[in-house]
Specification:
The protein is of the alpha+beta class. It has 2 domains: 227 residues, Rossmann fold; 95 residues, Nucleic acid-binding proteins (OB fold (Dihydrolipoamide Acetyltransferase, E2P), Beta Barrel), CATH 2.40.50. It has 8 helices and 18 strands. A 6-stranded mixed beta sheet has the order 6-7-8-3-9-10, sandwiched between helices.
Length: 347
């Protein structure tokens, strides 16, 4: 099922949460809605489900206009942050509950519940109650229940935020596996960029009720549309340099080009020499977490970070940092990325 929004606006009293947004979500893919709190990602998901009605605009499932269609008739599956399982029902009964409401025959309900439990790998938990399960197991039950109705679209609203870090990694891999095995169009809402980038075919980044970019995870990182996306995506946060930055090599050719802000990823910095360096910086601190090394620098009037450079440089030592021009991101005064200015390939 393909999902399409045409000039959709959502307003609560005086507050505009979504402002005439347009997008098409391709069928059979996993799409993440990503952005900071209050950006409108959950609102967009609830508009797809029918739990909210748009103030204006149109919503289509394939070619069907569902803008005013009742949520039950939209045939979507919903998975929430808090699982929303019935504590007095067993796992099997929780999975079968929407099927019972749909008056499906009992033997068919049981067969479907067992099939979904096998898909989500909780077949050995069917006779237990939610209180006897771990958080990850409860979330698998919630996914099984949502899939039991054989929905056209699966909607997941921050489904992993209540889990610990290691379990989140395990469950996002499971969600990706389940989506690929079923082929169901899935929308996954999160504020965690690592979650979004690791499992999604496409990521839609929102900010202040507007879509900033929709693309695959690699393009989102390497070719951000604007400064907001460049700063929101990536760890460590991208180094941003203004025109008045005091650490520039005054003879570098980049200063002759027309830009307002430069963005440099930490992994794109390398130790240069007096002829080809871009930035002069002083080493302040080195952090190592496992194999990941982050070098903290003081450059001109601001702090910067670099990765994958020699960590044995002495604290306080001054170093020259170079950057391949094709790896530099340049932005205009509005924050929009300037294409081709630094020789990068934007095809």
């Amino acid at each position: 099922m393909q999902v399409r929004f045409e000039d959709v606006t959502m307003q609560f009293e005086e507050k505009v949460v979504l402002n005439k947004i347009n997008f098409t979500l391709p069928a059979h893919q996993l799409i993440s809605f990503l952005g900071p709190s209050g950006c409108g990602k959950s609102t967009t998901l609830y508009l797809i489900s029918g739990l909210l009605n748009a103030t204006s605009g149109s919503i289509f499932f394939d070619d069907q206009d569902v803008t005013k269609l009742d949520p039950v008739k939209r045939e979507v599956g919903l998975v929430f942050q808090n699982y929303a399982l019935y504590p007095h029902l067993t796992v099997k009964e929780n999975i079968m509950f929407p099927l019972r409401m749909a008056k499906m025959k009992k033997n068919e309900r049981i067969e479907r519940a067992e099939e979904m439990a096998a898909l989500t790998r909780i077949s050995d938990q069917l006779d237990k109650y939610p209180r006897q399960l771990s958080g990850g197991q409860q979330q698998r039950v919630a996914i099984s229940r949502a899939l039991a109705k054989q929905p056209s679209i699966l909607l997941m609203d921050e489904p992993l935020s209540n889990l610990d870090a290691r379990l989140r990694i395990e469950m996002r891999e499971e969600i990706r596996r389940i989506q690929q095995e079923t082929g169901i169009t899935t929308v996954f809402v999160t504020h965690d960029q690592e979650e979004a980038l690791s499992i999604a075919d496409k990521v839609m980044v929102l900010q202040d009720g507007s879509i900033q970019q929709i693309s695959d995870p690699i393009s989102l990182y390497q070719q951000p549309n604007n400064l907001f996306v460049a700063k929101f995506i990536g760890t460590p946060v991208i180094n941003t340099l203004q025109r008045d930055f005091e650490g520039f090599n005054p003879n570098h050719a980049i200063l002759n080009k027309d830009w307002s802000t430069l963005g440099v990823r930490s992994e794109d910095l390398y130790i240069g020499d007096s002829d080809n360096y871009l930035i002069k910086a002083q080493l302040k601190r080195v952090d190592q977490i496992g194999k990941d090394i982050t070098v903290h620098l003081k450059a001109g009037n601001q702090n910067m970070v670099a990765s994958d450079i020699d960590p044995n440089i002495s604290i306080g030592e001054e170093i020259m940092l170079g950057v391949n021009p094709s790896r530099i991101l340049a932005f205009d005064a509005k924050g929009d990325r300037l294409l081709g200015l630094m020789g990068e390939n934007d095809e």
